[in-house]
Design a protein that fits this description.
Distance between the termini: 14 Å
CATH superfamily: P-loop containing nucleotide triphosphate hydrolases
Strand order of the largest sheet: 2-3-1-4-5
CATH class: Alpha Beta
Number of helices: 10
Radius of gyration: 17 Å
Strand content: 5-15%
Largest sheet: 5 strands, parallel
CATH architecture: 3-Layer(aba) Sandwich
Number of domains: 1
Length: about 210
């Protein structure tokens, strides 16, 4: 069983992945964040620096490369959990294209590379995940959880507009663009996985879905 965890920044993907790992005895493949040299630059650069140094495009290539390696490794083994996957990577690239942070030509290059990578997955014994767990929530909940997480480069007030832009179309991506597996949606307005009782409830929702 290969499970991917998706959803907006701050809603608890890593915590849910670790909960599932402990329950199912699975390995977690984490999103490359803390060791990512471009991410802090992406969040803190001025608009002039972004345009000159193309940090959004470089960041997407960095994530695409790391997520391609992750999903290849995960699909070679029977039980794994992925903290955000290559499928979701496209959504971030597209939204940055929509903002003008990634040019149309850069996005075309990105999509061509992504499509080639996805074709390569067809040669693996297991070709796609079995389930995606989509964590959704109100924008107020997203902001609150980002603030509680406390990564300094994520807390600048100027980023609020960017976060809202990402948040606005997430449901549309899940409903109309993601097709690799079955999806289970969990409303994180109702659950805070820092609390033991909520962790139990979230795990029950997921395990019920796995057994259905």
């Amino acid at each position: 069983m290969v499970i991917v965890i998706g959803g907006m920044i701050g809603l608890g993907k890593t915590t849910v992945a670790e909960m599932l790992s402990e329950k199912l005895g699975s390995q977690v493949f984490y999103e490359s964040v803390d060791d990512n040299p471009i991410l802090p630059l992406f969040y803190t650069a001025s608009q002039e620096e972004i345009e000159a140094k193309r940090y959004p495009f470089l960041l997407q290539l960095y994530f695409l490369n790391s997520r391609f390696k992750t999903i290849k490794d995960a699909l070679r083994h029977p039980n794994n959990i992925i903290d955000r996957s290559i499928y979701e990577d496209w959504y971030f690239a597209k939204r940055n294209r929509d903002l003008g942070r990634i040019s149309d030509l850069e996005f075309q290059m990105y999509e061509n590379l992504l499509n080639n990578m996805l074709e390569e997955l067809g040669d693996l014994p297991k070709k796609a995940p079995d389930l995606m767990i989509y964590l959704k929530g109100s924008f107020e909940t997203v902001l609150k959880r980002i603030q509680l997480r406390g990564r300094s480069y994520e807390l600048d007030e100027s980023l609020i507009t960017y976060y809202k832009f990402l948040w606005e179309s997430y449901d549309d991506w899940v409903m109309h663009h993601y097709s690799a597996s079955k999806v289970v949606t969990i409303d994180m307005d109702q659950y805070d996985v820092r609390n033991e009782a909520d962790r139990v409830q979230v795990l029950k929702l997921i395990t019920d879905a796995l057994h259905s």
